[in-house]
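User: Reviewer 2 asked us to show a designed sequence for the structure in our supplementary figure. I'm pasting the structure tokens here. Could you produce the per-position amino acids so we can include them in the response letter?
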């Protein structure tokens, strides 16, 4: 029989890892999907925190209800959110790439709900997100992310101290790379659609009586879809590289 005093004494060893784990699950891709019930995420967070608790056993000497305890709680939440946000940036690049390509193809009006983020995105973006999610699970990205989370307890032990200001600047610089990654993902199909639009522009100048909207709209969509299919291996390869780099950078920030 476990006494209440023993339970309260062991609570911090599970509380601090749970805060970092739950904060990561709140932001990280797949774990933060809106179609996953909150109870499931809480239970999963408790299970992962229980597994990580031996890594921090003996390191916590802070009163939970003190000012140092509140500082440590805020620190753990910020660390978890930043790690999940860095990996989420790779998925944000996929969404931006799909939106850019959909607007060029004329599919910007075709919106559907993204199950990952719970917002309306073009169907091209949703297709990209589905492919990115399948690749994330296929390469065990969720396990790699949990491994990075475990490593973070070695790099950033549980201490009621602040974080360096340069850490937040590094996150902002990584966010700026989203647009460069999005352009690289959408570039093959985007180039083909652009060349198609230029060709139709020349045709319009040569034959003004031609109803270019009736002809050009389906052709532009067809060209975009064909080149998306042809560029799919390159898309998966580039996103896989961006995802691997994001997981490494989630720990490399510290």
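Assistant: Here is a per-position design you can include in the supplement:
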């Amino acid at each position: 029989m476990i006494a209440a005093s023993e339970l309260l004494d062991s609570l911090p060893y599970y509380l601090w890892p749970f805060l970092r784990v739950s904060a990561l699950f709140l932001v990280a891709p797949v774990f933060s999907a809106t179609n996953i019930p909150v109870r499931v995420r809480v239970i999963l967070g408790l299970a992962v925190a229980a597994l990580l608790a031996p890594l921090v056993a003996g390191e916590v000497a802070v009163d939970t209800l003190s000012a140092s305890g509140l500082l440590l709680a805020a620190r753990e939440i910020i660390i978890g959110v930043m790690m999940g946000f860095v990996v989420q940036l790779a998925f944000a690049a996929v969404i931006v790439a799909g939106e850019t390509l959909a607007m060029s193809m004329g599919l910007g009006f075709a919106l559907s709900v993204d199950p990952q983020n719970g917002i309306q995105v073009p169907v091209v973006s949703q297709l990209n997100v589905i492919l990115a999610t399948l690749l994330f699970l296929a390469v065990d990205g969720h396990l790699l992310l949990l491994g990075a989370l475990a490593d973070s307890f070695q790099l950033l032990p549980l201490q009621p101290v602040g974080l360096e200001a340069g850490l937040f600047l590094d996150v902002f610089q990584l966010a700026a790379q989203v647009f460069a990654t999005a352009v690289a993902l959408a570039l093959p199909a985007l180039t083909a659609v652009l060349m198609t639009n230029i060709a139709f522009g020349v045709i319009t100048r040569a034959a003004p009586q031609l109803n270019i909207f009736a002809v050009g709209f389906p052709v532009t969509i067809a060209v975009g879809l064909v080149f998306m299919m042809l560029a799919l291996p390159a898309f998966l390869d580039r996103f896989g590289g961006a995802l691997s780099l994001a997981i490494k950078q989630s720990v490399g920030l510290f």
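For the response letter, you might also mention the following. The CA atoms of residues 18 and 49 lie 5 Å apart. The first helix runs from residue 4 to 27.
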